[in-house]
């Protein structure tokens, strides 16, 4: 059972699990590559590339958690909220709504 009743309640927790800049950078790289591969697949009609999307998206993010953040990715406990939060964090980064440096835990 989830301890979060809404995405609004979950997102601050998600950000607190992503305080390390290198971890967030790996998330952003993975998200950018997911968009690039998705666009390439759709525009070229080469649908075989789509199998790479979860590998790219989760692979970069999980490396960031295991190497830099030293915590378990939220995906393991909250898969849907975590997927949505990753894209919201990416959007917040791109639009300048996310502070570059996060306060320590």
Short description:
This protein has 105 residues and is an all-alpha fold. It contains four helices and no strands.
Task: Tell me what the structure shows.
The structure is a single chain. The protein is 65% helix and 0% strand. By secondary structure, the protein is an all-alpha fold. The chain has one domain (18-94). Helix 1 (7-16) packs across helix 4. The model has no long low-confidence stretch (mean pLDDT 92).
| Overall tally of structural domains | 1
Residues in helices, as a percent range: 55-70%
Task: Let me know the average pLDDT.
Answer: 92
Radius of gyration: 14 Å
Shape estimate: globular
- Could you give a short account of the major beta sheet? none
Question: Tally the helices: what do you get?
Answer: 4
Number of strands: 0
Order of helices and strands: HHHH
Terminal Cα span: 25 Å
Strand content: under 5%
The stretches of 5 or more residues where confidence is low (pLDDT under 50) are none
- Supply the helix-strand structural class: mainly alpha
Search tags:
4 helices, 105 residues, globular, mainly alpha
How is the topology of this model organized?
Elements: H1 7-16, H2 21-44, H3 52-69, H4 79-94
């Amino acid at each position: 059972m989830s301890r979060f009743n809404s995405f609004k309640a979950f997102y601050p927790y998600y950000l607190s699990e992503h305080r390390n800049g290198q971890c967030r950078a790996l998330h952003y790289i993975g998200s950018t590559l997911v968009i690039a591969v998705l666009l390439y697949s759709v525009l070229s009609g080469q649908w075989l590339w789509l199998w790479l999307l979860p590998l790219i998206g989760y692979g970069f993010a999980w490396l960031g958690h295991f190497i830099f953040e030293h915590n378990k990715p939220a995906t393991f406990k909250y898969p849907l909220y975590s997927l949505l939060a990753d894209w919201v964090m990416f959007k917040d980064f791109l639009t300048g709504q996310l502070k570059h440096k996060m306060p320590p835990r």
